[in-house]
Structures are given as C-alpha cells and as structure tokens.
Design a protein that fits this description.
There is one protein chain. By secondary structure, the protein is mostly helical. It folds into 2 domains: 2-117; 124-181, no CATH class. It contains 11 helices and no strands. The chain has helices spanning 2-8, 14-30, 38-43, 46-50, 56-69, 76-86, 105-114, 124-136, 145-159, 163-182, 186-191. Helix 1 packs antiparallel against helix 5 and helix 6 (76-86) crosses helix 7 (105-114). The longest helix is centred in the C-terminal third of the chain and has 20 residues, at 163-182.
Length: 192
C-alpha cells in the first residue's frame, strides 16, 4: 500500500503504469520475504528499488512513509489504520506523513482512504468527472481542492453514498473501468 501510494503520487496512469510496478515490487520483495515489515521497506536501498522504478523522489517518499508509519505499528495495515484515523488534512503539514516532501493532499487522502477512512481523494480524474456532472446539473464546478472536498461531502450527504464510493464511481465513469477489467492482476486489485 505504501509503494502504491508513493508511485501514485507521480500522476501517471494508475492501471497502466502504477499497478504493474506495484505487482513487480510485490513479486520481487514481498512474496520472496525480502520485505516483511515497514522497517524492511524503510531500509531497502534505492538501488534495489531502482530495478523496478527509477524515480528516486518516489522511492524516497515510499521509504519515508514506511519509516514514519512504523511508529504506529510494525504491521503495515494496522499502522495505516491507526495513522489514518487520527490524521487531519487541515493540519497536514504538521502530520508525520503529510509533512513528507512529495506527499501532497491527494496522496495524503489516498493513504487515509487505504487506512479505512471515508475521505474525498481530490485527484484530477475525480475532479474532472464530478465537475462535469456538477456543470451538467447546473452547478458551478469546484476546482480548488478544499472547495472540491466540500462539494463531494455535500454530494455524499445528499446521495447517501460514502465519500470514497463517489471517488471510486468517478474512476468507473471516466473509463477506468475498462482498464480495470483488462488488467490480468485480479489478485492485486483485491488487495487494494
């Protein structure tokens, strides 16, 4: 999950660029037992990670997220849950994860969503789809992150959907569903 979030921060297509790299990472390091904990991930030399993904900034983000999350628990999922429950995006720059250079609001919210918190992930795909729907319904679009988050929170209240469900629905509406169905790594998607 940490590597997924760090690679996602690149802005590359999730299903054609990020998912294959996360699978390669899992095959090479997790399934072989080379990485069994957040501490192992934090200690992995950049040269080894570069065999999978050459972007050093993203590697440093992944390593630093792992290092800081390990304070909450040695188990990745439990650490992410504990951090996500207490993380406040309005105080992001004071947060152990939010203060990492390279972690923006989208990555911060994405990590919180993976930690089980019902959040809005204001990424470009979600904004594009929701704003198109807002305009079609006669409302003003909300492009600024905080305005957008408030707009989706209001939509969630009105529709009875969870915020993260609205985000996932937008990926489906944007054509991501075709990419999702075409991916041969169903097991990886089940883990997300």
């Amino acid at each position: 999950m940490v590597v997924d979030a760090a690679l996602t921060s690149s802005g590359l297509n999730y299903f054609t660029a990020v998912v294959p790299k996360v699978k390669n990472f899992s095959d090479k390091f997790v399934k072989t037992g080379r990485i069994r904990s957040l501490q192992d991930l934090a200690a992995l030399p950049q040269e080894e990670f570069a065999e999978i993904w050459k972007n050093e900034r993203q590697w440093l983000v992944a390593r630093e997220i792992a290092r800081r999350l390990s304070i909450f628990s040695s188990d990745e999922r439990e650490a992410l849950r504990r951090w996500a429950r207490g993380a406040n995006p309005k105080r992001m720059r004071e947060d152990p994860i939010g203060s990492i250079k390279g972690v923006g609001l989208v990555t911060f919210q994405y990590l919180r969503a993976m930690g089980g918190v019902d959040v809005v992930v204001p990424d470009r795909v979600v904004k594009k789809v929701i704003n198109r729907l807002l305009v079609e319904a006669g409302f003003s679009p909300a492009w600024r992150d905080w305005d957008f988050i408030r707009a989706v929170e209001e939509l969630a209240e009105l529709t009875g959907l969870r915020r993260i469900e609205i985000c996932w629905l937008t990926w489906l509406l944007s054509g991501e569903s075709e990419r999702m169905r075409s991916i041969m790594w169903d097991g990886l998607l089940a883990q997300l």
